[in-house]
Amino acid sequence: MIGHSKPDIQKTRIANSMGRARILLEALPYIKQFRGTIVVIKYGGSAMEDPQLRESFAGDVTLLSMVGIRPVVVHGGGPQISAAMAAEGIEPRWVDGLRVTDEATIGVVQKTLVGVINPEIVRFLNGHGAAAIGINGLDADLFRAMPRDEKLGYVGEITSVNTRLIEGMLDQGLIPVVASIARGEDGHVYNVNADTAAGVLAKALQAQKLVYLTDVEGVYENVDEPSSLISRMDLSDLHRLLEHTDGGMLPKLRSVADALEGGVSQAHILDGRVQHALLLEIFTSEGIGTMVTP
Question: Is the per-residue pLDDT at 46 higher than 60?
Fold first, then answer.
C-alpha cells in the first residue's frame, strides 16, 4: 500500500501525555530547590485588570503554595484609586511621579486598597483552592512609616517591618495578601508605593525570590530598543543601569537593589501580560523576563 497509514489516535494521545510528563519532570528540580522558601510577589498592572490574566495569576500562586513554596502577595491599585477619586470629585495631583495624598485622598486610598482590591484578590485566589487571607500594613503594625516628603502629604517611606504576623500565617499554610498602606509615627495612615513595600517586605522576610509582575517584557538596556532586553544581570550591572533609568521602572529597580543587598537571593521582573509568567520563570530553565542576582 502506497502513502501514509491512517493516524493512530491512541499514539497521538500517548505522545501528548509524554510531553506533559516531561514538563512535570523539568519542574521537579525547581520544586525541590524552592520548596519551603518564601517568594514575595508584587501584583499589579494588566495582570490585575485582565480577567484571563487574573485567573492565570490565581492558578500560579495556588500551585506554588500546593508544592510547598510560600508565596506572599503585595498589591497596590493606582488605576482603581484614580477611578475612585474621580467618582468622589477629587482631582489627582502628582509630584515626581508620585500621587499627592492629602486628607481626602488617603481616605479614598485606604477604602479602595483595603475595602475593594484586597478582598477581591483574596476571593479569586481562594476560588482556585488557595488559602489566602487579606491584611494591610496597619495590621499588627506590619509597616511603620515616616513622611516621604512634605509636599506629597500622606505618602510614606517604610521605616520598620513587623514580620511576625506574616510568618505566623505562612507557618499555617496561608497566603498573605498585603495592601500597601502603613501607620505613621504620628498615628496617621500613609500611602506607600507598592513596589517599594514588596522589596522592603522581601528583605525583612529574607525571601528566596522577589517577583514583580509588570506591563513590559523585563528590563531593557535601552528602552527604545526591544532587542536590548536583559535576561540576567547582577547587582553591579543593576547599579550601572540605575544611573540612566527613570519612570515607573525606577522604584522597582531601586527596591530590587535594596532587597538583594539585604539578603534576598533572587529578583525577577516579569511580563505580567503573559499567562502563567510566574510558573514559567520559577519552574523552567529558560525562564522569561529579567532575573537579578547578587
Answer: yes
Q: How many CA atoms lie within 13 A of 162 on its CB side?
A: 15
What is d(CA 132, CA 169) in angstroms, rounded to the nearest whole number?
9
Alpha carbon distance 234, 213 (integer Å): 19
Q: Which three cell numbers, joined as nine digits, stand for 291?
A: 532575573
The answer to whether residues 41 and 61 touch, using CB atoms and an 8 Å cutoff, is: yes
Q: Would you give the DSSP letter of residue 92?
A: P
Tell me the C-alpha distance between 18 and 13, whole Å: 9
Q: Is it the case that residue 1 has pLDDT exceeding 70?
A: no
Confidence of residue 285 (pLDDT cuts 50, 70, 90): confident
- Residue by residue, DSSP assigns 120-188 as HHHHHHHTTT--EEEEETTGGG-EEEEES-GGGBSBEEEEEE--HHHHHHHHTT-EEEEE-EEEETTS-
Beta carbons of 274 and 288 less than 8 angstroms apart: yes
Which of 150-159, 198-207, 243-252 has the least mean pLDDT? 243-252
CA distance 289 to 292: 10
Region at 18 (left for phi over 0; alpha for psi -120 to 50; beta for the rest): alpha
34-293: CATH topology is Carbamate kinase (3.40.1160)
pLDDT band at 40 (very low <50, low <70, confident <90, very high): very high
7 HSE (CA, 13 A, CB side): 5
Query: What radius of gyration, in Å, describes the C-alpha atoms of the chain?
Result: 21
What are 235's three cell numbers?
A: 547587582
